[in-house]
Structures are given as C-alpha cells and as structure tokens.
Amino acid sequence: MRILVVNPNSTASMTARIGAAAKGVAAPGTEILAVNPPGGPESIEGYYDEALAVPGLLSAIERHEREIGVQGTVIACFDDVGLDAARSLATGPVVGICEAAMQTASLLGGRFSVVTTLARSVPALDQLARRYGMAGRCTIRAAGVPVLALEDPASGAVDRVRAGIRRAVEEDGAESIVLGCAGMADLARMLAEETGVPVVDGVTAAVKLIEGLVTLGLRTSKAGGYAAPLPKVR
Ligand code: 5HY
User: Would you indicate the residue range of the signal peptide (predicted)?
Assistant: First the structure.
C-alpha cells in the first residue's frame, strides 16, 4: 500500500526525519511518501501558522491521491492541522498524529502527559484533548523548545524534552508520555529507555493506525460532515 505522510510545515529536514521514522515502522509492502508543501510556514507554532499551513497541506493530499494513488494519509503535525478539511477532501482515510498518539497512550495506562514545544501551542492542544475525549486523563505541558530547535543537535532541545518528561511523571502523575511535535519522532525509543515510561510518538503511531484502516478497507464516512467538497468557485 502507498501511504502519504504530509509535514504541513515547509522545513525539508524535518520532513526527512519524519519520513525515516515512518519508514522505520511501516510493514513490508507499505510505501511511505513523506512530503511537505513547497511554501507556507517553516514551523507551526500556534493558530496563525496553523491557518497558513492548511492550503498547502490540502493541495499535497489532492495531488498525491490523484497522481500517485496513495491509499491513506497521515498529517504529521501535532496540532492536527486541517484534519477535518483533509477528511472531507481525501478519498482514503486520514489520521492526525495528535489523535493517533492520544488514542495509543490511552491504551497504555491511566493518565498521560503531552510534552510539546512552546507554551503558545498548549491551548490548541488542550482543545484537541477535549475534542478527542482525553481531557480528563491528560496534561499538556511545554518543554520550552521552538520547533526548529529540534533540527539543531546543539540546541539542547532533547535535554529540555527529557526534563519535561521527568517533570510530567513526577508532577502530573503521568504513566505514559506523548511527544507533542512531529519533529520529535526519532526520540521516542531513546526517551522511553531513559525514563522508564512508555513514550508515544504520533508519526509512528499514525502510520500503524493508517495501515490498519487501509488493510481493513475502511475509509472516512462521507455520510455527514466529511462529505466531499461541493463544486464551486473558490
Ligand atoms: C508540529 N509544529 O508537530 C507542531 C508542534 C507544535 O511545525 N510540527 C510543527 O509546536 O505545535
């Protein structure tokens, strides 16, 4: 099967790491196409960036379904940017990495914490936790790391994420951790070994969920709000 993994920000080095993480868990026979739109924000840090990233994300999905025949799509941004619009547009199923990671963490223990990048992303993620029915069992906390600091090994970003995980376990009562940025995709295993709690990365969790949906022949329902867009002048 062919799976599209879209990083909705325009930073190609992040897309490459996301793609490597996705390929690392994909089943034999799954082809991962990891892409980012050519324009749009270089990182998504809050509501304004989210809005600007959506048009490029939607055109990438439309093009890869039409030209390459991808059977499912992962939105590789923890804000689940454009998820509803993507589900309306796409023929195949679409999974956002926040929803995938939260659903996965909910299977691993009681409370969990999300360790994301900057404090400015926390309100949007709180809204997603409520939307996904997870608000009662999770805490969202920021590591104080700008998204693009994750691209620079000398930035100290990983140390801050590690410290965030330790505080989540001690102060939030977290039994497992969700990494709150696609740019953290390659850190999950190392941080789980170091901290002794399960650490869920949304990119890899979403790849396994989308593979499952495609294998089961399940697609987004078009019976309601995710009906295909009507033809009109836009
Ligand atoms: C992400 N931003 O996963 C989010 C994380 C955040 O560019 N990729 C981004 O900070 O909201």
Answer: none
Each residue's pLDDT tens digit, 61-89: 999 999 999 999 999 999 999 999 999 99
pLDDT at site 162: 98
Number of residues that this document lists for the chain: 234
Q: Where are the domains of the chain?
A: 2-97+205-215, 98-201
Cβ-contact 180, 199 below 8 angstroms: no
CA 24 to chain centre: 16
Ligand 1 site-directed mutation target among 36, 47, 57, 77, most atoms within 8 Å of CB: 77
Position 234 pLDDT exceeds 90: no
Protein residue whose Cα sits closest to atom 2 of ligand 1: 44
CA distances from 33 to 188, 193, 205 (A): 21, 29, 16
For residue 1, give both structure tokens.
């099967």
- The bridge status of strand 176-180 relative to strand 2-6 is unpaired
